[in-house]
Amino acid sequence: MTRSLDEVPGPRQLPLIGNLHQVDLARLHHSAELLSDKHGSFYRLRLGRRTMLAVSDPIAIGKILKDRPDGFRRSQLLEEVFREMGLAGVFATNGDIWRAQRKMVGAAFDPRHIKAYFPSLARSTERLYRRWCDHADRGTAFDLQADLMRFTVDAVAGVAFGADLNTIESDRETIQTHLNRVFPMLQRRLTSPIPYWRWVRLPVDRALDRSLCMLQTAVTALIKETRERLMQKPELRIAPANLLEAMLVERDSPGTPLTDDDVSSNVLTMLVAGEDTTANTLAWLVYLASKNPAAIRRLGEEADRVLGEAHWPTRLEIASAHRYASACAHETMRLKPVAPLLIVQALRPVVVGDIAIPTGTVLMAILRPGAMDARYFERPDTFEPERWLDSGGSQSTNTVGERISMPFGAGPRICPGRNLALLEMNMVTSMLFRNFEVTGLRTPDGAEVKEWFALAMAPSKLLVTLARR
Prior knowledge:
Strand order of the largest sheet: 2-3-9-6-4
Strand content: 5-15%
Radius of gyration: 22 Å
Distance between the termini: 62 Å
Structural class: alpha+beta
CATH architecture: Orthogonal Bundle
Number of helices: 17
C-alpha cells in the first residue's frame, strides 16, 4: 500500500511561512535532523511557499540519487539561482545540458590528467608548509579554515587554470575574498521566501554583484590566455596540463553543443565548490583527530614512513600511499558531511519508500542520520578511521559504508572532482602530521565548536597553535 504526500506526517505549519519558524537557516541541516528524529525517516516540510518531502532513510536516498538524471533533477529553484549568478555548471544544470557538461568535466578529471596536475598541488602544499612553519616558530594561534581555504583556492586555480595565484603567501585582497561571498549568498537566496533580489538589490547583493563581476573577468581572461596557448602548443590538445585546457579541448571537439560560457561556468563552479568543501573537511579532520591521540600517533607514524625525509608528498604515488590519512578523510566525511542536505525534484511520478510522489515534488535528502545509524556502523558516534581499513591496514572498499555515507553523492551525478578532493586532503594531512604537533585548538570565545550551514557545512572558527615535531 502506498500513501499520498498529504498523508505523510510532519511538524505543524503556520499560514504563509509554513515551518520557517521551526528551523534555524544557519543550521538548516541540524533542524532537519532534529525533525527527522521526531517525525521519522519521511516527513512533510514547508518552507515559505515550497512544500517538500524530507527523507533521511539511506536506502531510499541511495535509490533517489541513482535515479538521476532521468527520475530526479536539481530543483528548478537551485538551477535558476545558480544560473543568475553565472554558475550554470555541471553541479546545477539538468538534462541534455548536464550530459554535455558532464562529459567535458569528466574528461578534464580523467585520472590520466591528474599526474600532469600534481606539480601544482605539490607547490601549493610546500607554500602551506612554509606558512605553518612560520606560525609554529612564532607560537601564534591562527585561523585554520582561512589558511586551508587559501590552500584550496591555490590548488584549484593551479589545477583548473594553470594559474599561480599564491594566495597562501599574499597579504593583499585576493580572489578568495570574492569567492567567500558566493556560498553564503547562494544559501540566502535558496532559502528566501521570495526572490527579492530580482526587484531590489540590498547592499549584500550589490557586493555579490561586484565579486561575481571580478571573478567572471578573471575567468574570461584565463580562457583567452589558454586558447592562445593551445594554438601555440598544439601538443597540449593531446596532453593537457590543467583542467581548463582539457575542458577547452573537449569543448572544441566536432559536433559539441558546448560553449565558452559552459566552460566559464564550470571553472567558476570548481573554484566555488572546491574552496569551501575541501577546506571545511580538512578543518573537521584536524578537529576530530586532535581529540583522538591514537589517531594523531598513527597519522604521524604513517607520514614518517611514507614520506621519509621529505616534508610533503613530492610524487602522486607517494600522496596516494597514505592509507590511514585517506581513512581519516572518509571517517570525517561520515561524521561531518560537508553536504549534509541534497535537494532534488521529481521528473515523473515515483514511489519513494511507501509514498507516491507526483511529478514536480521537491525532496530534501538528509544524509547524516544513515551514517549515524548503528545498523550500518558500530559505535557510529565515535571517530574510528580503522573502519575504512582492512585487517592488514590497507585501505579497503567499505561497500556498506560508502553506500550509506555518500559524501560525494551517488549514481551518475556523483561529484566528478572527488578524486582530486581526496588527493588534496592526503597532501595536507600528511604534511601536517609529518611536520607539526597540534598544541592548541579552540574557538575565539572558548565556546564549543558548532556546525554552520551555508550550502556547505563548516565548523565555527577554529584557532590552531602548532609546534614543530
